[in-house]
């Protein structure tokens, strides 16, 4: 039984098909890496799932509920939480408030003590609970990333979409980050993660889907995919940075 | 407890104050109360969301006009209710169509809205009713106007305080910081903004309605005076538009400063007013309250270190 | 006190326009030796222009002349200097109302002079009544004057109503049509605000009654700056008479537009601004024959003397409509004070019932209103002369058709 | 009749477009929403009149000097007032709010100075206001001159922006102020030039207004509003757009005044302005982003 199903998703920008008929599914509790060279349409696909962009065609369902055509906030309340490629925090709010908003407005719509508790737990999870009252604008980059993840977690989502959440971290931070995501997965969370860091993908995801020029070119076990000639060509052909 | 008690004591004092002051003092109180109400109501929407609205006078003037049109047909409380409803309905229509505009576009739109409202009312009066300029002869004393405005101001602050603690307030603050995050966190952008905009507009309209008996004569050119919009903005920003007491804190000293300047320097008043504005922008960009906080925070520099 | 020296320094910044306040405030006069007169007229905002032409210069001229003559004479023959308390009402009624409260309750001035404009005078009327001050509302044109005079019995309305001016104009045009000088068609435009609407509402029935046909009748918004389209429509309407119930920017703009497009109606009538001293300049020296609202008896020595004094004191001539009446209202006040003193009730009674000698001749109010007014004037031989009512002493005969531009 | 509407509308539109050129440069390049724009225009108009009445200097002759003075004033204003705000904002959205508030203060300041120095009177001069027949329609010569200045200034500006390297720098800063420094453009310098040039155009606009219109010291906001409407309609920072929008507005007003009701001209202006904001906030002639 598929939990998240993407069927024939298309996103057209003028003459460009950024996502061109992509279909795949995730099972509940599964963690899947979404790979592909720059400009292959990964982030666009994440945007289609989370509702940031309306799909030109195709259908996306979560747990049977149709997401396509819904507004962003409705999709969020349906249980889709995401992080952003360029980290987005709310600088004028405190850490706990930053996190609380998804607890309040998200999937389970808590209020009062319950919202506070969920937010604290999320902060605890990413290791920021000791600074809950600080202003978010004062955080370092890695802490901003943690905060963003905590915010996604406080939504108590059905599925978590991570858009290069591990990018820009130093080796120590990276291994902490990988542990954190593993912990979330072990807690039963379904995760779809866009990632460039292949080691992280190997460590976390038993299965990957690979995109190139808007199309799905592989959907298989991670080891198989990473030795798949078509995947390698796509990367070598398209990739500029490492 | 003290946070509720103190304002209540202040409100009680302000209520009995007219017994001890001259008519001019009362006039000053009305003026101050009006601008505290306007600035607070403006900040209710604009302060948190950072949508700088210059449409204040569109609502304020509509309120005054509603009283002018209806004061002979309906009892006074019903007139006020109508004013609030008309203001709310206007805000709903406008908000539905415009609250997706961002930044300077919204600023200019809101300014254009005030002008459009004025032009349309003028055209309607000239061509449909054939009268331009209406009279308000109501048996309402200056004190009653003051008490009404005081009540409205207090209600605005109470409402703001309540909103700040509610889901709506949190949603507004998130929208002010980042609309994308807000939407992906499950906040219904349109509805949230619309609720705040309509509430704010209803208060602005009521404020216009309440003060209108003081003018006796109402004409579009008189009640749609764009200065009201500008003063409201600068007052709220001076005090700090995203804080409960900020707009009030900005409104009172600025109002008194204008009064002082226009009475002591009638010729050069605009020059000083201009310098004052520029001074505010350069010296207290985040509002007086924030300035006070940074001044007190200097003693405890730990927040600085966390900055990157 | 550093405050005082800073204030003085700041005040020095306001070079020249008025210094009555600074001047009299500096005088070391003991309490009670002066008569305090207050006013809150627009110095800034949209009303500042009108107030700066008609109201403020006359107030200043009058205070200056009275003080130069030793002050206001009281019934016992003693004289008291005038001390002025002036505020800027910023063209906003909420500020105006507060300033009046301040003058009455804080400064406790002896007399309050009214602001400029119909709306402003109405806004302060209830307050003036409450505090008991007589209100000599000059720059207020309203058909409801009788009603207001009855409502506030110490208010005096001195500039007539829209119907009066419209009727006067129709009389002039009807006479010309009956003489066969002009046809029965009229093109009329009016500005969309209280004044313009009052006039057009008075004019429509009056024209109809006199048998005129309004072939073009449009209203334009306040703030219109381009009149080319409007004037070209009026030109094409076939009317011999062009009538504009307009404010100065419109009056001037229409004059220039008519000149540049060679529009030469036999009657060219504009409203506010037509009687301004700068009008001939605006019309490029071709104002001859232009009709406008108001007028003065240009041959009267009193008026000529007033024009000369005004020009000498303020550097420019007064307008030929409300200025002289404003000054006359102040003379009335001066004479009433001399007769009955500063008691407000006695003053109001005297103003209401007394007869006064002023620059516009002998004045006696009817039901607290000045009815003996000029409705229509015309530029003739470089002066703006009153032409209607034609039977009034000092009226000139209208010149129709107007010479071409 | 249609011809009359067309010609009168075009001439009116030309005067409108001239007013808007400077504002679109100031906002497009320097990112300053200058609410005191109309006051700058007025100040220039008053100066022209003062020269004309005081020294008998013809407005057309004093125009270059006024334009130069406008450039200098704009340069100084940017350096003293706007630059610190730009630096403080660090490219964030707060510059918009700050500049609106600061220039609003400037509006009062200039208005006060004008009131003190020139009084509250209506000012109006007669200069070249005889009629000229254009295709059978009589048009005031001074308006025709303003129209000519507009065409001249507009084409010069468009050409300079399109073809010179100076223009390229201007456009680069207008498009992406963030990345312009990467290619060695001194953004501060370009923004200052843009603002100063905008002020010079405001002064030219004011000088031509003084030839044909009655104005007073409190009229500035009227000019600002008109210019703003045109700038938004044409697309912010879009010079050809501002020209086209100016003409469109002139035609619209003339059409409404003749065919519908003169009472609705200003309402029509604002209605179309609001409509453009809602449906094409990038302007009638801007590319969809």
| Helix content percent band of chain A | 25-40%
What structural class do the secondary elements of chain B suggest?
mainly alpha
Q: Could you say what the CATH topology of chain B is called?
A: ABC transporter involved in vitamin B12 uptake, BtuC
Strand order of the main beta sheet of chain A, please?
A: 6-7-8-3-9-10
Helices and strands of chain A, in N-to-C order?
EEEHEEHEHHHEHEHEEHH
Please report the total strand number of chain A as a whole number. 10
Structure description:
The complex is a heterotetramer of chains A (242), B (308), C (405) and D (289). Chain A is α/β, with parallel strands linked by helices and 242 residues long. Helices cover 38% and strands 25% of the residues of chain A. In chain A, the strands form 2 sheets. A 6-stranded mixed beta sheet of chain A has the order 6-7-8-3-9-10, sandwiched between helices. A 4-stranded antiparallel beta sheet of chain A has the order 2-1-4-5, covered by helices on one side. Chain B has a two-stranded antiparallel ribbon with strand order 1-2. Chain B contains 15 helices and 2 strands. Chain D is an all-alpha fold and 289 residues long. Chain D has 10 helices and 2 strands, in the order ααααββαααααα. Chain D has a two-stranded antiparallel ribbon with strand order 1-2. Chain D is globular, with a radius of gyration of 19 Å. The model of chain D has no long low-confidence stretch (mean pLDDT 85). Chains C and D meet through helix 3, strand 8, helix 9 and helix 10 of C and helix 1, helix 4, strand 2, helix 5 and helix 9 of D. Chain C: It comes from Pseudooceanicola nitratireducens. Chain C: Belongs to the leucine-binding protein family. Chain C: This is Amino acid/amide ABC transporter substrate-binding protein, HAAT family. Chain C: Keywords: Amino-acid transport, Signal, Transport.
Short synopsis of the structure:
The complex is a heterotetramer of chains A (242), B (308), C (405) and D (289). Chain A is of the alpha/beta class.
Task: Give the topology, please.
The complex is a heterotetramer of chains A (242), B (308), C (405) and D (289).
Chain B (H helix, E strand, L loop, with lengths): L1 H15 L6 H27 L6 H15 L5 H23 L5 H26 L4 E2 L6 H24 L1 H11 L1 H6 L4 H23 L5 E2 L1 H4 L3 H13 L6 H19 L4 H15 L4 H10 L4 H5 L2
Antiparallel strand pairs in B: 1-2
Helix pairs in contact in B: 2-6, 2-7, 2-9, 2-11, 2-12, 3-4, 3-5, 3-9, 4-9, 6-7, 6-9, 7-9, 11-12, 12-13
Chain C lengths: L1 H12 L6 H7 L7 E8 L6 H21 L3 E2 L5 E10 L4 H14 L4 E3 L4 H14 L3 E3 L7 H7 L3 E3 L4 H17 L6 E7 L2 H16 L3 E8 L7 H8 L5 E5 L2 H13 L6 E4 L8 H4 L8 E3 L7 H14 L7 H19 L3 H10 L1 E4 L2 E4 L11 E5 L2 E6 L17
Parallel strand pairs in C: 1-3, 1-4, 5-6, 7-8, 7-9, 9-10, 10-11
Antiparallel strand pairs in C: 2-3, 11-14, 12-13, 14-15
Helix pairs in contact in C: 3-13, 4-5, 7-8, 13-14
Chain D lengths: L1 H29 L6 H19 L3 H31 L4 H25 L12 E4 L2 E4 H23 L1 H11 L11 H26 L7 H15 L4 H22 L4 H15 L10
Antiparallel strand pairs in D: 1-2
Helix pairs in contact in D: 1-5, 1-7, 1-8, 1-9, 2-3, 2-4, 2-7, 2-8, 3-4, 3-7, 5-6, 5-7, 8-9, 8-10, 9-10
GO molecular function, one term (chain A): ATP binding
Protein name (chain A): Branched-chain amino acid transport system ATP-binding protein
InterPro entries (chain A): AAA+_ATPase, ABC_AA/LPS_Transport, ABC_transporter-like_ATP-bd, P-loop_NTPase
